[in-house]
Amino acid sequence: MYYFYQPQYFHSPYHPMAYRPILQRPNMNHRFVQQPMNQPNPRNQQNPGNQNPYPEVDPNQLYDSANETKKLMKDASIVLERLSSSKDFDKQLMDHAQQSQSEEVKKLIKSIGIESDVDILYTPDSLRLEFISQIADSDCCKLSIVLKWR
């Protein structure tokens, strides 16, 4: 009995058998790696006296950031309350934003009575308010709110 190899020709590149993955043996060296006997393995050493290998934690920064973020959330809720209760205020804000009057938009937001610093960014589709707080001249926390208006 004779067997002849007959190649298959695929006339379309989209045929499921047109592209076959090339299977290759991984190029790996399977020899065992031995550690020299004179150096102890640090993973097998017991931690003497249950000492913590990490530095001592200081929760003061996190505590201060959490308290500052509570203030930011209070200011954000004041702004959201005003935006959700007054369509006239919303119309003024959107008109100034449409005319690219950034200073007027900032004055309107500040006129609500907030104490935090606010970065105001707007696009034709949305308003982004980023409330920022600082502790000891470094940014500690930010709160971002994005509101769609179109």
Element-by-element helix/strand order? HHHEEE
Order of strands in the sheet with most strands: 1-2-3
On the 0 to 100 scale, the average pLDDT is 80
Number of helical elements? 3
Find the count of extended strands (DSSP E, 2+ residues).
Answer: 3
For the sheet with most strands, the description reads: 3 strands, antiparallel
Spatial gap, N to C terminus:
77 Å
Q: Rough shape?
A: flat
**Class computed from helices, strands and strand pairing:** alpha+beta
Please mark out the parts with pLDDT under 50 across 5 or more consecutive residues, or reply none.
Answer: none
Strand content: 15-25%
Rg calculated over all Cα atoms: 32 Å
Helicity range? 25-40%
Give your account of this protein's structure.
The chain has 150 residues and is of the alpha+beta class. The chain has helices spanning 60-85, 87-98, 102-110; strands at residues 117-122, 126-135, 138-148. Strands 1-2-3 form a three-stranded antiparallel beta sheet. Strand 2 and strand 3 (138-148) form a beta hairpin. Helix 2 packs antiparallel against helix 3. The model has no long low-confidence stretch (mean pLDDT 80).
